[in-house]
Structures are given as C-alpha cells and as structure tokens.
TrEMBL record:
It holds the Pfam family PG_binding_1. This is Peptidoglycan binding-like domain-containing protein. Residues 1-22 form the signal peptide. The keyword Glycoprotein does not apply. Residues 142-188 form the Peptidoglycan binding-like domain. Keywords: Signal. It comes from the Bacteria. InterPro entries: Peptidoglycan-bd-like, PGBD-like_sf, PGBDSf.
Length: 203
C-alpha cells in the first residue's frame, strides 16, 4: 500500500528545480560513507532490512537534520515524514534511478519536501482515536485542516486542534480513497493530501 500511494507523489522529486547548496567555489563538497553508495545498493539493502539499511536511514536523517539547520527559513524540512515513509519514498525513486548516488537521491528528496517545510518551531499535537495515535506539528495539522476543508471533507475551524470533527473528516477521506479508516493523520494520509495532491496539480 505504501509503495502504491508514494509512486505518484515521488514524481515531484524529478520536477524540483536545482537550487544553491553550500559547497566550495567550484560547487564541490565532500560526501561521506553511505552517501557514496548507488541507489541500486540502497534498494538491495532495503529488501534485506538488516543493519546496513539502518545505516542508510541514519545517513538520510543526518542529511535532513543538517538541511533543517542550514537551509534558509527552515525549522524542519520534513515536518511529517518518518523514517519508514521517507525510506520507501527513496526506494521508489532509486528503482527508477539505479546508478544515481544515494546522496543525490536524498538531496532530491529534501528539495521535493522543501515546500512542505515549517519555518519556525510549532507545538506538537497528539491525534488519538482508539488504538490509533500519532503526533504531528500544529502547523501541519492546520495545513491538513485547510486541505480537507477545501476538498469538502471538513467544516470546522482551522485551529491545529484534533477533535471529533477532524477525526470524522479524516475517516471520510480515508474511506473515499481506500485507506485504512484510522481517523488519525498517518503517513499515507499526509502524503496523499499534502504532497501527492501538489504533484497532480503540477502535471
């Protein structure tokens, strides 16, 4: 299911224009450890789901942390993507670009997600419905509320709060598109609403 929903949204990785990143006067910089591996090696290690795959994810999260620290007007470049989601998104991209270096793929991911970044610290909100629970930034929840309202799923306030109206709107959307009806803003829902919808508009 995760691969199915990410396949469309990952197209945005190929549509993001290059931008300036820190490097020397010739645009060169040092790349360490897992960043030098190829995409095909990453896909192979992901299939094994062993120690080396964890090292790839650690490298990715380190890169994204550095991006959040050094990119202009950025608090968190990936404010709602967890390691499993981002790792799957990278795998979809890497299967289409097997010879690409892993650091290039991760840089593409950072650029693709940058339009979703938050620029300053936002409180973390708990969204809980029965056994289903997740945590996300208040600003991300406000964006989701806005999207659900624009698409006629939600008629409540844009306040970054998770309550019954928000739960019901999420369930309605999940049912419409065939996702598990958890009632919480999980990774697949956020991907579909906040990233894939942008990719579809850009086509």
């Amino acid at each position: 299911m995760l691969n199915k929903w990410i396949a469309t949204g990952v197209l945005v990785m190929g549509m993001i224009q290059s931008q300036a990143w820190a490097a020397d006067s010739d645009g060169k910089f040092s790349v360490r450890s897992m960043g030098l591996a190829t995409c095909s090696q990453y896909v192979e290690e992901k299939a094994k789901a062993e120690g080396k795959y964890a090292a790839f994810l650690g490298w990715m999260e380190g890169y994204l942390t550095a991006t959040s620290q050094y990119a202009k007007d950025t608090y968190d470049v990936v404010p709602w993507g967890n390691a499993v989601y981002l790792g799957t998104m990278l795998a979809v991209h890497c299967k289409a670009n097997p010879e690409q270096r892993f650091y290039v793929a991760v840089a593409s991911l950072a650029r693709a997600m940058q339009s979703n970044r938050i620029v300053s610290l936002s409180p973390v909100v708990e969204a809980k419905n029965g056994e289903h629970k997740t945590y996300l930034y208040k600003e991300v929840l406000e964006r989701l509320q806005t999207w659900l309202k624009e698409n006629k799923y939600y008629d409540g306030a844009i306040d970054g709060a998770y309550g019954n109206k928000m739960r019901d709107a999420i369930v309605k959307f999940q049912k419409t598109v065939g996702l598990d009806e958890t009632g919480v803003p999980d990774q697949l829902l956020l991907h579909r609403a906040l990233l894939q919808s942008k990719a579809e508009k850009a086509k």
